[in-house]
């Protein structure tokens, strides 16, 4: 709680000229750095103007200490979801120059996460996937329970059931093993 | 298609969006007009810079600069709340102790053989 009061004090002190390291960066000099979460109408209007959003549309990301500052919460739509026929300034990114970027813009590029509407409804997708997987699982279970294979007998070996190979002495006459029937 | 339900986290096709057909109030239209005006202003700025024959440098994109700066400097606005402390403990502190314990016991097992 004391931290919040200290932050406000620092904020009011530092309003005005930007000094120190921040003054050297071109983004900071033109006043484009990420500032603190807006608390009054003046700050909200300034932030909306900075990000080129309507004041009514500007909604900062919730202030829960995760470091968003006054960055706006834009709709979570991927770039693939945008109109392919419109004349974008950057057609591969489907974005116009100086358009406010989503916080997760690098996630929403067309190579990555895609939120565009699905071709079939969610229920159809669920039914198809779980139906197929469930059916296959059930059939494999049945196949395991009721195996079906060619009838087999014990393997037959030549040379009197491999008498010498199995360690039998060459002097002893092995018993005659007949594995066939004519 | 009356029972079309979009996938979670996906959007609805524009042709199935009820706003397209039922939201025709003047306020909504004025809002759309204001948004279009903002967009047109930005487009105009870009085109002026793009087609300026005396321009020798790259066109700087302020929105990109803001985004890069915002993504690179979240700690300036970090606050130690319950959620952030829990996340920090789960991902930063706990793995250290867990991995130390796992490696230590594993090594001892092999050493004993």
Overview of this structure, please?
The complex is a heterodimer of chains A (182) and B (113). By secondary structure, chain A is mainly alpha-helical. Chain A has six helices and no strands. Chain A has helices at residues 2-14, 21-24, 26-29, 41-50, 122-145, 158-162. Chain A is rod-shaped, with a radius of gyration of 37 Å. Residues 16-24 of chain A have low confidence and may be disordered. With 113 residues, chain B is mainly alpha-helical. Helices cover 64% and strands 0% of the residues of chain B. Chain B is built from four helices and no strands. Chain B has helices at residues 18-22, 26-50, 62-72, 82-112. The longest helix of chain B is centred in the C-terminal third of the chain and has 31 residues, at 82-112. Chain B is extended. The relative contact order of chain B is 0.03. Classes of the chains: A mainly alpha (182), B mainly alpha (113). At the A-B interface, helix 3 and helix 5 of A face helix 2 and helix 3 of B.
Q: Which assembly state applies to the chains in this document?
A: heterodimer
Rg of chain A, nearest Å: 37 Å
Order of helices and strands of chain B: HHHH
Instruction: Measure the end-to-end span of chain A.
Output: 100 Å
Mean pLDDT of chain A: 83
Greatest interface by residues involved: A-B, 45 and 44 residues
Give start-end ranges of low-pLDDT stretches of chain A.
16-24
Strand content of chain A: under 5%
Largest sheet of chain B: none
Structural class label of chain B:
mainly alpha
Helix content of chain B: 55-70%
Number of distinct helices of chain B: 4
**What string gives the helices and strands of chain A in order?**
HHHHHH
What's the shape of chain A?
rod-shaped
Chain-averaged pLDDT of chain B: 87
Helix fraction of chain A? 25-40%
- Characterize the biggest β-sheet of chain A: none
What is the CA–CA distance across the termini of chain B? 67 Å
Subcellular location (chain B): Mitochondrion inner membrane
Organism (chain B): Gadus morhua (Atlantic cod)
Main location (chain B): mitochondrion
GO cellular component, one term (chain B): mitochondrial inner membrane
